[in-house]
Design goal:
With 361 residues, this protein is α/β, with parallel strands linked by helices. Helices cover 40% and strands 16% of the residues.
C-alpha cells in the first residue's frame, strides 16, 4: 500500500501532523509513506522514522514554482499511490492531492475544493477549543483510525547529530560551561498578533539571568527578525552588571535542525505560540508558552504530561480567541497585558519542579 501525505506552509502545522504519521505507520506497518512539504518546514519530517520518503516542493515563486509543482505531480502520479491525505486544504495542496491519481483522497470539506476528494471531512469555520493535532487527525478518523494519545503518539522531530555538534560548539564559544544551566528564550513570531513586546522580553531575560551565576540565557529569533534578538540581548545586558551580562548569550541564528538540538540541551524554553514553540514541544524540555489570540487547548505541547509545561495568558477577554486578521481593541491587549513577572514566575516554578524531580531517588 502506498500513502501520500500533503502538508504545505507552516512549521507548526507540520509538527502537528507528526502524530498522524506515527498513527498511519502503526495502522499500516508495511505501507510506503511519502510526505510532501515545503522547504521551510522540511527539517521537521526529514528524519522522521515512520516515513519512507520526503518530497520537498515550493519555495520559489512564479513560473519556477509552477514548474516545481508540475515535477512533483508527475512524480507522484508515476508512483501510483493508493491513498492521498491533504492535511492542508489550500489550493495547491488540494490540486496536488487530486492530480496524484490516488483512488482514495481524503481532505476537508472546503467550498470550491471538496470535489477533489473522495473522502470529505467537515472543518468548521469558527475557532474550536480543540487541539490542532485532533483537528488534523479527523482525516485519519475518516479512515477508521481512532484518536491518538499524546503520551504514546507525541509530536516528533528527530535530532540531527551534525546539528547537535554544531550547537554544542557555538554554545561553548558563546561562553557556556559544561555545568551551566541553559534557558532558551525565543523572541519573535510570524505575525504581530503573536509577538510579545521586545522590551518585555528584555526584562524577562535579565530577570532570568540575574539570580544564578550558573545560568545562561540564549536569545533566539527567526531569520527575518535577527534584529529582534539583538535588541533584546542589548537591552537585557544593559539592565545587568558586567558579570551578570555575560550570562545572556548571543549565539547567532540557528537553523531549524540546530534549534531542535538547542532546545534539547535546555533546562527551559520560553516563547510565544509559533513554530519554534511547537518544535520545542517535540523535546522533553519544560516549556513556558505565551498565548495571545490563540488558546492553549488548541496549540499547547502535544506530548506526555510527564514533561512540564505552563501557559501564560490573559483570561476574560471577549475578543479572544480571534482570527488574527484585525485587533478589535487595537492594542493587542491579549499580549501586551501579559507582564514579565507573570512569565518569570511561571519559569521559576517549572525550574523548581524540575530540580525537585531530579532530586527524587
Amino acid at each position: 500500500m502506498r500513502i501520500l501525505l500533503v502538508r504545505l506552509r507552516q512549521i507548526g502545522d507540520v509538527v502537528f501532523t507528526t502524530p498522524a504519521i506515527h498513527g498511519l505507520r502503526e495502522r499500516f506497518p508495511d505501507a510506503h509513506l511519502t510526505y510532501i512539504v515545503e522547504p521551510a518546514a522540511a527539517p521537521v519530517v526529514a528524519g522522521n522514522p515512520h516515513l519512507n520518503e520526503v518530497i520537498v516542493t515550493g519555495g520559489r515563486s512564479g513560473l519556477a514554482g509552477l514548474r516545481d509543482d508540475i515535477r512533483v505531480i508527475r512524480r507522484v502520479r508515476a508512483a501510483k499511490f493508493d491513498t492521498a491525505i491533504d492535511f492542508h486544504g489550500g489550493p495547491r495542496s488540494s490540486l496536488i492531492t487530486w492530480l496524484s491519481g490516488a483512488p482514495v483522497r481524503a481532505g476537508y470539506d472546503i467550498r470550491g475544493r471538496s470535489w477533489m476528494y473522495t473522502i470529505r471531512v467537515p472543518r468548521p469555520r469558527h475557532i474550536r477549543p480543540r487541539h490542532a493535532v485532533l483537528n488534523q487527525w479527523d482525516l485519519l478518523g475518516a479512515l477508521g483510525i481512532p484518536e491518538p494519545d499524546a503520551s504514546r503518539m507525541p509530536a516528533e522531530m528527530t535530532i540531527d547529530p551534525v546539528a547537535a555538534a554544531s550547537v554544542g560548539k557555538r554554545l561553548a564559544d558563546g561562553g557556556m560551561g559544561a555545568s551551566d544551566q541553559l534557558i532558551v528564550v525565543h523572541v519573535s513570531a510570524g505575525n504581530p498578533f503573536r509577538r510579545w513586546p521586545l522590551d518585555r522580553f528584555a526584562v524577562l531575560v535579565s530577570g532570568l539571568a540575574q539570580p544564578d551565576a550558573g545560568r545562561r540565557v540564549a536569545v533566539t529569533s527567526g531569520p527575518s527578525e535577527r534584529g529582534a534578538a539583538a535588541a533584546v540581548i542589548e537591552q537585557a545586558r544593559a539592565r545587568l552588571g558586567t558579570d551578570e551580562a555575560r550570562r545572556v548569550l548571543a549565539c547567532g541564528e540557528f537553523s531549524l535542525a540546530e534549534f531542535r538540538a538547542l532546545v534539547d540541551r535546555a533546562a527551559l524554553y520560553i516563547g510565544g505560540d509559533s513554530g519554534p514553540l511547537h518544535i520545542a514541544s517535540t523535546s522533553g524540555t519544560p516549556i513556558v508558552g505565551l498565548y495571545g489570540p490563540t488558546l492553549p487547548v488548541r496549540s499547547e505541547p502535544w506530548r506526555s504530561p510527564e514533561f512540564l509545561s505552563a501557559a501564560v495568558e490573559v483570561d476574560g477577554l471577549p475578543c479572544r480567541p480571534c482570527d488574527q486578521r484585525s485587533c478589535a481593541p487595537g492594542d493587542f491587549r491579549c499580549l501586551t497585558w501579559i507582564e514579565p513577572k507573570q512569565v518569570l514566575d511561571a519559569a521559576e516554578r517549572l525550574l523548581a519542579r524540575t530540580r525537585t524531580v531530579n532530586l527524587e531517588p
